[in-house]
Protein backbone atom coordinates (compact mmCIF):
# COMPACT_ATOMS: atom_id res chain seq x y z
CA UNK A 1 0.00 0.00 0.00
CA UNK A 2 1.33 3.43 -0.95
CA UNK A 3 2.28 5.48 2.10
CA UNK A 4 0.71 8.90 2.46
CA UNK A 5 1.80 12.03 4.29
CA UNK A 6 -0.57 13.23 7.01
CA UNK A 7 -0.67 16.71 5.45
CA UNK A 8 -2.11 15.21 2.26
CA UNK A 9 -4.85 13.55 4.31
CA UNK A 10 -5.66 16.93 5.86
CA UNK A 11 -6.03 18.47 2.41
CA UNK A 12 -8.34 15.63 1.32
CA UNK A 13 -10.61 16.13 4.33
CA UNK A 14 -10.74 19.91 3.97
CA UNK A 15 -11.61 19.59 0.27
CA UNK A 16 -14.36 17.09 1.04
CA UNK A 17 -15.89 19.42 3.63
CA UNK A 18 -15.54 22.50 1.43
CA UNK A 19 -17.95 20.97 -1.07
CA UNK A 20 -20.84 21.68 1.28
CA UNK A 21 -19.43 24.24 3.74
CA UNK A 22 -18.75 27.65 2.25
CA UNK A 23 -17.64 28.95 5.65
CA UNK A 24 -14.65 26.62 5.75
CA UNK A 25 -11.52 28.59 4.83
CA UNK A 26 -7.86 27.67 4.44
CA UNK A 27 -5.10 30.21 5.09
CA UNK A 28 -1.41 29.77 4.25
CA UNK A 29 1.79 31.76 4.68
CA UNK A 30 3.34 31.13 1.26
CA UNK A 31 3.17 27.43 2.18
CA UNK A 32 0.45 25.90 0.01
CA UNK A 33 3.01 23.68 -1.73
CA UNK A 34 4.83 22.44 1.34
CA UNK A 35 1.49 21.99 3.13
CA UNK A 36 0.12 19.95 0.18
CA UNK A 37 -2.79 22.40 0.00
CA UNK A 38 -2.32 23.49 -3.61
CA UNK A 39 -5.22 21.22 -4.71
CA UNK A 40 -7.52 23.04 -2.26
CA UNK A 41 -6.41 26.45 -3.54
CA UNK A 42 -7.09 25.38 -7.13
CA UNK A 43 -10.48 23.80 -6.41
CA UNK A 44 -11.76 26.46 -3.98
CA UNK A 45 -9.97 29.75 -4.74
CA UNK A 46 -12.71 31.77 -3.02
CA UNK A 47 -12.14 29.82 0.20
CA UNK A 48 -8.35 30.10 0.17
CA UNK A 49 -6.33 33.03 1.55
CA UNK A 50 -2.62 33.56 0.98
CA UNK A 51 -1.01 36.01 3.41
CA UNK A 52 2.58 35.58 2.29
CA UNK A 53 5.39 35.05 4.79
CA UNK A 54 3.66 36.86 7.66
CA UNK A 55 2.76 34.31 10.30
CA UNK A 56 1.53 36.84 12.87
CA UNK A 57 -0.90 38.32 10.33
CA UNK A 58 -1.88 34.83 9.24
CA UNK A 59 -3.15 33.87 12.69
CA UNK A 60 -4.77 37.21 13.49
CA UNK A 61 -6.61 37.30 10.15
CA UNK A 62 -7.88 33.79 10.81
CA UNK A 63 -9.08 34.83 14.27
CA UNK A 64 -10.95 37.79 12.78
CA UNK A 65 -12.61 35.58 10.19
CA UNK A 66 -13.63 33.13 12.92
CA UNK A 67 -15.30 36.01 14.78
CA UNK A 68 -17.33 36.63 11.62
CA UNK A 69 -18.61 33.07 11.61
CA UNK A 70 -16.06 31.46 9.31
CA UNK A 71 -14.25 28.19 10.11
CA UNK A 72 -10.57 28.88 9.30
CA UNK A 73 -7.81 26.27 9.09
CA UNK A 74 -4.33 27.80 9.18
CA UNK A 75 -1.35 25.92 7.71
CA UNK A 76 2.25 27.03 8.21
CA UNK A 77 5.59 25.40 9.06
CA UNK A 78 5.41 24.31 12.69
CA UNK A 79 8.75 25.95 13.46
CA UNK A 80 7.35 29.39 12.59
CA UNK A 81 3.74 28.89 13.69
CA UNK A 82 4.89 27.98 17.21
CA UNK A 83 7.37 30.85 17.56
CA UNK A 84 6.70 33.85 15.31
CA UNK A 85 2.94 33.78 15.88
CA UNK A 86 3.00 32.58 19.48
CA UNK A 87 1.43 35.78 20.86
CA UNK A 88 -1.33 35.80 18.25
CA UNK A 89 -2.11 32.13 18.95
CA UNK A 90 -2.14 32.85 22.67
CA UNK A 91 -4.28 36.00 22.63
CA UNK A 92 -6.28 36.06 19.38
CA UNK A 93 -7.06 32.34 19.31
CA UNK A 94 -6.77 30.60 22.70
CA UNK A 95 -7.60 33.43 25.10
CA UNK A 96 -10.31 34.82 22.82
CA UNK A 97 -11.76 31.33 22.24
CA UNK A 98 -11.93 31.78 18.47
CA UNK A 99 -12.60 28.73 16.33
CA UNK A 100 -9.23 28.55 14.57
CA UNK A 101 -7.43 25.30 13.82
CA UNK A 102 -3.65 25.78 13.59
CA UNK A 103 -1.87 23.15 11.49
CA UNK A 104 1.88 22.96 12.02
CA UNK A 105 3.38 21.29 8.96
CA UNK A 106 6.83 19.71 8.65
CA UNK A 107 6.99 19.36 12.43
CA UNK A 108 9.85 18.08 14.55
CA UNK A 109 13.03 17.56 12.53
CA UNK A 110 11.19 17.01 9.22
CA UNK A 111 13.22 19.75 7.50
CA UNK A 112 16.37 17.74 8.23
CA UNK A 113 19.42 19.52 6.88
CA UNK A 114 17.91 23.00 7.32
CA UNK A 115 18.77 22.73 11.00
CA UNK A 116 17.60 24.41 14.18
CA UNK A 117 15.99 27.42 12.48
CA UNK A 118 13.54 25.07 10.73
CA UNK A 119 13.11 22.42 13.42
CA UNK A 120 10.11 22.58 15.75
CA UNK A 121 11.04 20.73 18.88
CA UNK A 122 9.28 23.06 21.31
CA UNK A 123 5.71 23.16 20.02
CA UNK A 124 4.11 20.81 22.57
CA UNK A 125 5.48 22.98 25.37
CA UNK A 126 4.42 26.21 23.65
CA UNK A 127 0.84 25.35 22.73
CA UNK A 128 0.03 23.09 25.68
CA UNK A 129 0.87 25.98 28.02
CA UNK A 130 -1.85 28.16 26.47
CA UNK A 131 -5.17 27.99 28.37
CA UNK A 132 -7.91 27.02 25.94
CA UNK A 133 -5.64 25.44 23.32
CA UNK A 134 -5.80 21.74 22.46
CA UNK A 135 -2.75 19.93 21.03
CA UNK A 136 -2.78 16.92 18.69
CA UNK A 137 0.03 14.87 17.10
CA UNK A 138 -1.63 12.24 14.86
CA UNK A 139 0.48 9.19 14.01
CA UNK A 140 -0.67 8.01 10.60
CA UNK A 141 -3.05 8.68 7.70
CA UNK A 142 -6.05 6.80 9.13
CA UNK A 143 -5.85 8.54 12.52
CA UNK A 144 -5.31 11.93 10.88
CA UNK A 145 -8.44 11.42 8.77
CA UNK A 146 -10.57 10.54 11.79
CA UNK A 147 -9.16 13.44 13.83
CA UNK A 148 -9.79 15.99 11.06
CA UNK A 149 -13.34 14.79 10.56
CA UNK A 150 -14.01 15.56 14.20
CA UNK A 151 -12.10 18.84 14.39
CA UNK A 152 -13.91 20.19 11.34
CA UNK A 153 -17.18 19.91 13.25
CA UNK A 154 -16.24 21.42 16.61
CA UNK A 155 -15.79 25.06 17.60
CA UNK A 156 -12.75 25.00 19.88
CA UNK A 157 -9.17 26.16 19.09
CA UNK A 158 -6.62 23.45 18.37
CA UNK A 159 -3.05 22.93 17.21
CA UNK A 160 -2.32 19.91 15.00
CA UNK A 161 1.27 18.97 14.20
CA UNK A 162 2.14 16.74 11.24
CA UNK A 163 5.43 15.81 9.60
CA UNK A 164 6.66 16.39 6.09
CA UNK A 165 7.02 12.90 4.65
CA UNK A 166 4.78 9.87 4.06
CA UNK A 167 4.30 7.91 7.28
CA UNK A 168 4.11 4.22 8.06
CA UNK A 169 0.69 2.66 8.64
CA UNK A 170 -0.31 2.06 12.25
CA UNK A 171 -4.09 1.63 11.84
CA UNK A 172 -6.42 -0.01 9.38
CA UNK A 173 -8.27 2.35 7.06
CA UNK A 174 -11.55 3.53 8.52
CA UNK A 175 -10.42 3.61 12.15
CA UNK A 176 -12.55 5.92 14.31
CA UNK A 177 -10.94 7.44 17.35
CA UNK A 178 -12.64 8.54 20.53
CA UNK A 179 -11.58 12.16 20.67
CA UNK A 180 -9.14 13.08 23.44
CA UNK A 181 -8.70 9.44 24.48
CA UNK A 182 -5.39 7.69 23.88
CA UNK A 183 -5.53 4.70 21.56
CA UNK A 184 -4.24 1.38 22.85
CA UNK A 185 -2.39 0.12 19.80
CA UNK A 186 -1.15 -3.01 21.55
CA UNK A 187 -1.99 -4.59 24.90
CA UNK A 188 0.78 -5.56 27.33
CA UNK A 189 1.45 -6.18 31.00
CA UNK A 190 5.22 -6.03 31.59
CA UNK A 191 5.82 -2.42 30.53
CA UNK A 192 4.17 0.41 28.61
CA UNK A 193 5.38 2.54 25.72
CA UNK A 194 3.59 5.88 25.36
CA UNK A 195 4.33 7.68 22.10
CA UNK A 196 2.92 10.45 19.93
CA UNK A 197 3.10 11.46 16.29
CA UNK A 198 5.59 9.63 14.10
CA UNK A 199 7.11 7.92 17.14
CA UNK A 200 4.12 5.59 17.51
CA UNK A 201 5.23 3.33 14.66
CA UNK A 202 8.77 2.63 15.97
CA UNK A 203 7.27 2.14 19.46
CA UNK A 204 4.94 -0.49 18.03
CA UNK A 205 7.85 -2.11 16.18
CA UNK A 206 9.81 -2.24 19.44
CA UNK A 207 6.90 -3.88 21.26
CA UNK A 208 6.59 -6.50 18.52
CA UNK A 209 10.33 -7.23 18.75
CA UNK A 210 10.09 -7.63 22.53
CA UNK A 211 7.07 -9.90 22.21
CA UNK A 212 9.28 -12.41 20.39
CA UNK A 213 11.48 -12.47 23.49
CA UNK A 214 8.53 -13.10 25.77
CA UNK A 215 8.17 -9.49 26.98
CA UNK A 216 4.64 -8.09 26.92
CA UNK A 217 4.57 -4.34 26.23
CA UNK A 218 1.53 -2.09 25.98
CA UNK A 219 1.69 0.64 23.31
CA UNK A 220 -0.35 3.83 23.71
CA UNK A 221 -0.81 6.37 20.93
CA UNK A 222 -1.09 9.60 22.93
CA UNK A 223 -2.06 11.67 19.89
CA UNK A 224 -3.96 13.99 22.27
CA UNK A 225 -1.25 15.87 24.17
CA UNK A 226 -3.79 18.31 25.54
CA UNK A 227 -6.13 17.33 26.98
CA UNK A 228 -3.94 14.36 27.86
CA UNK A 229 -5.68 11.10 28.72
CA UNK A 230 -4.77 10.72 32.40
CA UNK A 231 -6.82 7.56 32.79
CA UNK A 232 -4.75 5.84 30.10
CA UNK A 233 -1.54 6.94 31.85
CA UNK A 234 -2.80 5.58 35.18
CA UNK A 235 -3.54 2.25 33.52
CA UNK A 236 -0.09 2.18 31.89
CA UNK A 237 1.48 2.86 35.29
CA UNK A 238 0.02 -0.43 36.54
CA UNK A 239 2.73 -2.22 34.54
CA UNK A 240 5.32 -0.54 36.78
CA UNK A 241 7.48 0.61 33.86
CA UNK A 242 6.71 3.40 31.38
CA UNK A 243 8.89 4.62 28.53
CA UNK A 244 7.74 7.70 26.59
CA UNK A 245 8.86 8.42 23.03
CA UNK A 246 8.52 11.80 21.30
CA UNK A 247 9.98 13.94 18.53
CA UNK A 248 10.37 16.93 20.83
CA UNK A 249 12.68 18.61 23.30
CA UNK A 250 13.14 16.77 26.62
CA UNK A 251 11.43 19.72 28.30
CA UNK A 252 7.69 20.38 28.39
CA UNK A 253 6.59 17.57 26.12
CA UNK A 254 4.95 14.16 26.39
CA UNK A 255 7.56 12.76 28.77
CA UNK A 256 7.24 15.70 31.15
CA UNK A 257 3.45 15.41 31.16
CA UNK A 258 3.43 11.66 31.78
CA UNK A 259 6.08 11.92 34.50
CA UNK A 260 4.06 14.61 36.28
CA UNK A 261 0.90 12.49 36.19
CA UNK A 262 2.70 9.39 37.45
CA UNK A 263 4.55 11.33 40.16
CA UNK A 264 1.28 12.67 41.53
CA UNK A 265 -0.92 9.62 41.19
CA UNK A 266 0.98 6.55 40.00
CA UNK A 267 3.45 3.94 41.11
CA UNK A 268 5.78 3.39 38.17
CA UNK A 269 9.16 4.44 36.86
CA UNK A 270 9.19 6.72 33.81
CA UNK A 271 11.98 6.92 31.23
CA UNK A 272 11.64 9.71 28.65
CA UNK A 273 13.10 9.28 25.16
CA UNK A 274 13.22 12.47 23.12
CA UNK A 275 15.44 14.64 20.98
CA UNK A 276 18.41 16.07 22.92
CA UNK A 277 18.65 19.56 24.35
CA UNK A 278 20.86 20.77 21.51
CA UNK A 279 20.55 21.61 17.81
CA UNK A 280 19.71 18.33 16.08
CA UNK A 281 22.19 16.85 13.63
CA UNK A 282 21.49 17.27 9.93
CA UNK A 283 20.04 14.31 8.07
CA UNK A 284 16.86 12.54 7.07
CA UNK A 285 14.27 11.92 9.79
CA UNK A 286 15.16 8.23 10.04
CA UNK A 287 18.88 9.00 10.26
CA UNK A 288 18.33 11.54 13.03
CA UNK A 289 15.95 9.24 14.90
CA UNK A 290 18.54 6.45 14.77
CA UNK A 291 21.30 8.77 15.96
CA UNK A 292 19.31 9.83 19.03
CA UNK A 293 17.86 6.43 19.89
CA UNK A 294 14.34 7.02 18.63
CA UNK A 295 14.32 3.90 16.47
CA UNK A 296 12.68 0.57 17.29
CA UNK A 297 15.91 -1.24 18.21
CA UNK A 298 16.99 1.33 20.78
CA UNK A 299 13.48 1.73 22.19
CA UNK A 300 13.33 -2.04 22.73
CA UNK A 301 16.76 -2.02 24.38
CA UNK A 302 15.69 0.74 26.78
CA UNK A 303 12.57 -1.20 27.82
CA UNK A 304 14.68 -4.30 28.53
CA UNK A 305 17.15 -2.23 30.55
CA UNK A 306 14.35 -0.67 32.61
CA UNK A 307 12.79 -4.04 33.31
CA UNK A 308 16.12 -5.36 34.63
CA UNK A 309 16.20 -2.51 37.15
Structure write-up:
This protein has 309 residues and is α/β, with parallel strands linked by helices. It has two domains: 156 residues, Rossmann fold (3-Layer(aba) Sandwich); 126 residues, Rossmann fold (3-Layer(aba) Sandwich), CATH 3.40.50.920. Helices cover 37% and strands 17% of the residues. It is built from twelve helices and twelve strands. The strands form two sheets. A seven-stranded mixed sheet has the order 2-1-3-4-6-5-10, with helices on both faces. Strands 7-9-8-11-12 form a five-stranded mixed sheet, with helices on both faces. The radius of gyration is 19 Å and the shape is globular. The model has no long low-confidence stretch (mean pLDDT 95).
Spell out the blueprint of helices and strands.
Layout: H1 6-18, E1 24-28, H2 38-43, E2 48-50, H3 55-67, E3 71-77, H4 78-81, H5 86-95, E4 101-105, H6 123-128, E5 134-136, H7 141-151, E6 158-161, E7 183-186, E8 191-195, H8 200-211, E9 217-221, E10 224-226, H9 230-237, E11 241-245, H10 254-265, E12 269-273, H11 285-291, H12 296-308
Parallel strand pairs: 1-2, 1-3, 3-4, 4-6, 5-6, 8-9, 8-11, 11-12
Antiparallel strand pairs: 5-10, 7-9
Helix pairs in contact: 1-7, 3-5, 8-12, 9-10
Task: Label this structure with key terms.
globular, 309 residues, Rossmann fold, seven-stranded mixed β-sheet, 2 domains
Strand content: 15-25%
CATH level 3 topology of the largest domain: Rossmann fold
Helix count?
A: 12
What's the β-strand tally? 12
CATH class group of the largest domain: Alpha Beta
Task: Tell the overall outline.
Answer: globular
The N- and C-terminal alpha carbons lie at a distance of 41 Å
Structural class: alpha/beta
- The helix-strand sequence is HEHEHEHHEHEHEEEHEEHEHEHH
On the 0 to 100 scale, the average pLDDT is 95
Question: Mind describing the biggest β-sheet?
Answer: 7 strands, mixed
User: How helix-rich are the residues, as a percent range?
Assistant: 25-40%
- Main-sheet strand order equals 2-1-3-4-6-5-10
Q: Architecture of the largest domain, CATH level 2? A: 3-Layer(aba) Sandwich
Low-confidence stretches: none
Amino acid sequence: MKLKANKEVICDQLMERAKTDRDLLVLCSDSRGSASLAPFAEAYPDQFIETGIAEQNLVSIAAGLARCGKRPFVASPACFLSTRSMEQAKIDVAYSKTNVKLIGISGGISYGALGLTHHSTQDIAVFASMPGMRVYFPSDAALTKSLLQQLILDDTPAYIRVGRNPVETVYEAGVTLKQDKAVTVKEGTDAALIACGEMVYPALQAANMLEKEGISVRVLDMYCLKPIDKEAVFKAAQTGTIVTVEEHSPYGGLGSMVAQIVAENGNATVKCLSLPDCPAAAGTSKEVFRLYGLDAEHIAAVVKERLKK
